[in-house]
C-alpha cells in the first residue's frame, strides 16, 4: 500500500471548489511533484494533507492510518513534516534553537523542564545545520538570515525529526538560480528515508528531482504519471503554454 | 511583543557580550536583602516593602502567562483572591494557620482553579484567540468579585477581617521583618523556579508558541496543553501571593479577586518589562514606591494619582518593552535555552 493515499478529496470555500475529487498516491521514498497554474489548489491540497484544514469530503490515509480529521500534532508524530508556502521560521529565535525546537517535540514536559535532551540533541542539531550550510550561523537569529537561507532552515527543521513524508510548498520561491540548484542537491539524498510531495512553479527544477508529477487545474487532477508522460500530455502542454 | 531584531549586532560582538539581565537580578536581590535593615526604625516602610514583595509574585504570575506564553490573562487576581479568602476561612472556621500547610494549599487551590479555567478557555476543540482568553479571564474575575460581594458566609461586601495570624508552630507572624523574610523567601524560590522554567527546553517551546503557535502544532506540539500547564503554574504563584497578602493585611475583600487588581498586575508587568521575570518585580517596586512617595508630598497630595496615571500611560505606550527595555538588548531578552553554552 502507498505511504500516502488521498482519495476523492474535495474542499469548498462557499461556492468555490478549491479541490474537486482529488486522488493522489505517493509511494515511500518517491518524489512527487505537484504542478498547476495559480489558484489551481496545490497549496490547498498540501494543507489538507498536513491538517491545516480538513477536507469537505474524501479520505486521506497515511502510513496505514486514516488521518483525514486528525489534528496536526498527531500527524507530525506519525512522521509527516512540512514547509508551507509562506516561510515561517521563528525569526526571533536563534537558528540553532529553531532546529532544536523541531527536534525535541516528542519529549515529555518534565524532561523539557530539566533540559534533559539538550546535550544529546546537540549533535543532531549541528548535523542538520551543516547539511544545509547553516552551521556557521547557528547563533544568529533566524530573522537575520536571507530569504533563501530561511527556506533552507525551514527545510532543515522539517527534516530534522526524520519524517516519513515531507511536504514542501514552493521551497525555491524567491531564490537565485544558484540557490535553486543547491536546493535540488540538498534534497536529492533524503530519498533514502523520506518521501516528498513538492509544489513548484519552476518546471525545470521539478522535472530534475521528481519521479512522478501530478497536474492540477481548477481543483481537479488533469493527469498523473512519470515526468515524461506528464510532459507529453497534450492537456498539460496546453495549460502550460496558455500560462507562459 | 519583542522589538524587531534588524539592528542586532554582528555575531562576534554578541558572543562575549556583557549580559546585563543577571546583573540587574543580582542588584535587585541585594537591595531587597539590605534595604529592610536600613529601614529597621521605619515599620511602615517595612510594611510597604513586604506588600511590594508579595505583589511582585502576582505580577510575576502574569509575566509567566503573557510575557512567556502569550496568554493574555486579565484574571490573575481571581487565583490571588480565592487563596486569600481560603486562608481567611481556614483561619476562622478551622482555627488553623500553619504556613507549612496553608501556603502550599493556597498554591494548590490557585493552580487547580487556573487549570479548571484553562480547560474551558484553552482546551476546547478549536484554538482560542487571545481576545477570547482575555475576555474569558476578565469575566471569571468579574463574576468572582460579584459572587463574594453578595455572599454572607464570606462577609459579602465587607470581606473578611481579623484573619488569623500566619503561624509556624507556636510562632506567629505579625507585620515586620519576620513576615518580610517569609515573603522574600517565597519570591526568591518562585523566581528561581520560574527562571529555570523559562530558560529550559520547555521555555524554548513557550518562546516558539509566543511567536507562531500554529507552526508549533505542525512540529508535533500540543500547543494548548503547554499553555494550560503554564497557566496553571501561574495560578499557583498567584495563589501563594494571595495567601501571603491576606495574612499580611489581616483582611481580604471582594476587590482582591476582581478585574481591578488583575489589571494592576498587568500594569506592574508591562511597566517593568514583560518577558523578563525581573521586569514585573521592578515594575511593582517602581509603581508602589512612586505611589507612596507621591502621596506623601503635600503639594500634590490632591492629584498624585493623575500624575502616576500619566507616567504609566507614557511608559506603556511609548516603551513597549518597559523600563527594562531601556537597558537590556533585544537579543538578550530573547536569550538561549537549555544551557546551550555549557553543552558546547
Ligand atoms: N481560506 C480560503 N478562503 C477562500 N478561498 C480560498 C482560501 N484558500 C484558498 N482559496 C482559494 O482556493 C483556490 C486554490 O488556492 P491555492 O492556494 O490552493 O492555489 P495554488 O495552486 O497554491 O496557487 P499558487 O500557485 O498561487 O500558490 C484559489 O482560488 C484560492 O483563492
Ligand atoms: Mg500555493
Molecular structure report:
The complex is a heterodimer of chains A (244) and B (344). Chain A has 244 residues and is α/β, with parallel strands linked by helices. Chain A contains ten helices and ten strands. Chain A folds into two domains: 4-89 and 163-242, P-loop containing nucleotide triphosphate hydrolases (Rossmann fold), CATH 3.40.50.300; 93-144. Chain A has helices spanning 42-50, 72-78, 95-103, 109-113, 118-131, 147-159, 177-187, 203-209, 227-232, 234-243, and strands at 4-13, 16-26, 31-35, 57-62, 65-66, 80-83, 165-169, 195-199, 212-217, 220-226. In chain A, the strands form two sheets. In chain A, strands 6-7-8-3-9-10 form a six-stranded mixed β-sheet, with helices on both faces. Chain A has a four-stranded antiparallel β-sheet with strand order 2-1-4-5, with helices on one face. The model of chain A has no long low-confidence stretch (mean pLDDT 91). Chain B is mostly helical and 344 residues long. Chain B has a domain at 42-257. Helix content of chain B is 69%, strand content 2%. In chain B, the strands form two sheets. Chain B has a two-stranded antiparallel sheet with strand order 1-4. A two-stranded antiparallel sheet of chain B has the order 2-3. In chain B, helix 3 (43-69) packs parallel to helix 7 (177-199), helix 3 packs antiparallel against helix 11 (278-295) and helix 10 packs across helix 11 (278-295). Bound molecules: adenosine-5'-triphosphate and magnesium ion. Magnesium ion is lined by residues 42-43, 85, 169 of chain A. Magnesium ion (MG) is lined by residues 42-43, 85, 169 of chain A.
Amino acid at each position: 500500500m502507498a505511504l500516502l493515499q488521498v482519495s476523492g478529496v474535495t474542499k469548498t470555500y462557499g461556492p468555490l471548489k478549491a479541490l474537486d475529487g482529488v486522488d493522489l498516491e505517493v509511494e515511500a521514498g518517491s518524489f512527487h511533484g505537484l504542478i498547476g497554474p495559480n489558484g489551481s489548489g496545490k497549496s490547498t491540497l498540501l494543507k489538507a494533507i498536513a491538517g491545516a484544514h480538513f477536507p469537505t469530503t474524501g479520505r486521506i490515509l497515511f502510513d496505514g492510518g486514516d488521518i483525514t480529521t486528525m489534528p496536526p500534532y498527531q500527524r507530525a508524530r506519525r512522521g509527516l513534516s512540512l514547509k508551507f508556502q509562506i516561510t515561517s521560521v521563528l525569526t526571533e529565535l536563534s537558528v540553532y534553537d529553531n532546529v532544536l525546537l523541531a527536534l525535541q517535540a516528542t519529549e515529555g514536559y518534565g524532561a523539557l523542564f530539566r533540559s534533559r535532551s539538550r546535550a544529546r540533541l546537540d549533535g543532531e542539531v549541528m548535523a542538520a545545520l551543516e547539511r544545509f550550510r547553516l552551521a556557521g550561523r547557528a547563533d544568529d537569529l533566524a530573522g537575520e538570515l536571507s530569504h533563501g537561507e530561511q527556506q533552507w532552515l525551514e527545510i532543515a527543521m522539517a527534516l530534522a525529526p526524520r519524517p516519513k513524508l515531507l511536504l514542501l510548498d514552493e521551497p525555491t520561491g524567491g531564490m537565485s538560480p544558484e540557490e535553486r540548484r543547491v536546493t535540488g542537491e540538498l534534497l536529492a539524498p533524503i530519498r533514502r528515508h523520506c518521501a516528498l510531495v513538492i509544489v513548484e512553479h519552476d518546471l525545470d527544477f521539478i522535472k530534475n528531482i521528481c519521479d512522478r508529477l501530478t497536474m492540477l487545474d481548477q481543483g481537479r487532477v488533469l493527469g498523473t504519471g512519470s515526468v515524461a508522460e506528464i510532459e507529453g500530455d497534450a492537456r498539460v502542454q496546453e495549460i502550460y503554454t496558455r500560462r507562459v | 511583543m519583542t522589538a524587531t531584531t534588524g539592528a542586532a549586532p554582528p555575531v562576534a560582538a554578541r558572543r562575549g557580550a556583557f549580559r546585563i539581565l543577571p546583573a540587574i537580578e543580582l542588584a535587585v536581590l541585594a537591595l531587597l536583602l539590605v534595604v529592610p535593615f536600613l529601614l529597621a526604625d521605619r515599620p511602615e516602610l517595612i510594611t510597604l516593602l513586604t506588600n511590594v514583595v508579595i505583589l511582585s509574585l502576582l505580577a510575576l504570575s502574569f509575566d509567566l502567562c503573557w510575557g512567556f506564553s502569550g496568554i493574555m490573562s486579565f484574571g490573575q487576581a481571581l487565583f490571588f483572591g480565592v487563596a486569600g479568602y481560603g486562608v481567611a476561612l481556614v483561619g476562622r472556621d478551622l482555627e488553623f494557620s500553619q504556613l507549612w500547610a496553608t501556603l502550599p494549599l493556597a498554591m494548590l487551590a490557585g493552580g487547580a482553579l487556573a487549570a479548571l479555567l484553562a480547560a474551558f478557555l484553552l482546551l476546547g476543540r478549536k484554538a482560542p484567540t487571545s481576545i477570547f482568553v482575555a475576555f474569558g479571564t476578565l469575566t471569571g474575575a468579574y463574576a468572582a468579585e460579584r459572587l463574594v460581594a453578595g455572599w454572607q458566609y464570606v462577609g459579602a461586601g465587607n470581606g473578611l477581617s481579623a484573619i488569623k495570624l500566619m503561624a509556624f508552630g507556636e510562632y506567629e507572624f505579625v507585620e515586620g521583618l519576620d513576615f518580610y523574610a517569609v515573603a522574600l523567601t517565597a519570591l526568591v524560590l518562585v523566581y528561581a523556579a520560574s527562571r529555570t522554567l523559562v530558560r529550559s527546553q520547555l521555555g524554548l517551546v513557550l518562546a516558539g508558541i509566543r511567536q507562531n503557535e500554529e507552526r508549533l502544532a505542525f512540529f508535533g506540539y500540543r500547543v494548548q496543553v503547554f499553555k494550560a500547564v503554564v497557566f496553571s503554574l501561574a495560578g499557583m504563584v498567584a495563589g501563594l501571593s494571595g495567601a501571603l497578602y491576606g495574612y499580611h493585611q489581616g483582611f481580604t475583600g471582594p476587590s482582591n479577586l476582581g478585574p481591578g487588581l488583575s489589571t494592576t498586575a498587568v500594569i506592574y508587568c508591562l511597566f517593568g518589562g514583560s518577558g523578563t521575570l525581573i521586569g514585573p518585580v521592578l515594575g511593582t517596586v517602581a509603581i508602589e514606591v512612586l505611589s507612596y512617595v507621591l502621596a506623601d508630598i503635600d503639594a500634590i497630595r490632591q492629584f498624585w494619582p493623575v500624575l502616576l496615571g500619566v507616567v504609566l500611560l507614557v511608559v506603556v505606550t511609548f516603551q513597549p518593552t518597559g523600563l527594562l527595555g531601556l537597558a537590556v538588548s533585544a537579543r538578550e531578552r530573547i536569550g538561549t535555552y537549555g544551557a546551550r553554552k555549557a553543552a558546547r
